[in-house]
Design goal:
single chain; mainly beta; YmcC-like fold; 16-stranded antiparallel β-sheet; two-stranded antiparallel sheet; 1 helix; about 10% helix; globular
Length: about 250
Amino acid sequence: MTRTRQNFLVLPIVIVMSIVVVLVVVGCSTKESSPKKTNTSGQDISWSDNIIINKSELASTGVNPYFNLKPGYQLVFEGTEKGQKASNTITVLKDTKIIDGVETRVVEERALSNGTISEVSRNYFAISKTTGVVYYFGEDVDEYDASGRVTGHSGTWHAGENGAKAGIMMNSDIKKGLRYYQEVAPKVAMDRAEIVNVSESATVPAGKYTDVIKIEETTPIEPGYKAYKFYAKGIGLIKDGDLLLVSMSGQ
């Protein structure tokens, strides 16, 4: 009787352990074979900051259909921000700067709030001579108070310093659902972009445009943050939030 009772006890334990092993194996297999995040076209749209750049074929001057790095090119925007009259002037300067071993073009952004300078940034870009992709190598930022004094440099970063590396400012293969990091500066600037539409129509003071691409910008540093920018072929940025393009020059 004792031996028979022992056999009855061992058998359920073996069965239970076998079931547990099977469940563990199945669970592991499911995790390992989980599909990548894709859009309706089957494109992989998972975020990645592993951007491979061939520095030897980059140039500080060039033109992407949606981003112009020709010295002298200028875009002027006007609108409202936080209930105040605002403007931003983007100018491709003649200046260049070596960032992470690459000669980059300096693009200045000069922002005004109620007619008073609020921020000036010098952004550093380079363009691929073979693909036309525009890479973002960092920026220097000066923030101003109402009296015109510099109060800070929030957002300043340079590729090759403190773990930062270049991101993609504008791709060449424009497709809905395409995702990429624009800035890769841990704890400082981690802006990323997703092309959410490639056939927008937009009317701004500078004109009417079709086949406009709409880009949604987010950042893991500020969960929940979203901003939208619109780019027209042959022009570049035409709408940045509530700021609208009013004029362009130097084409």
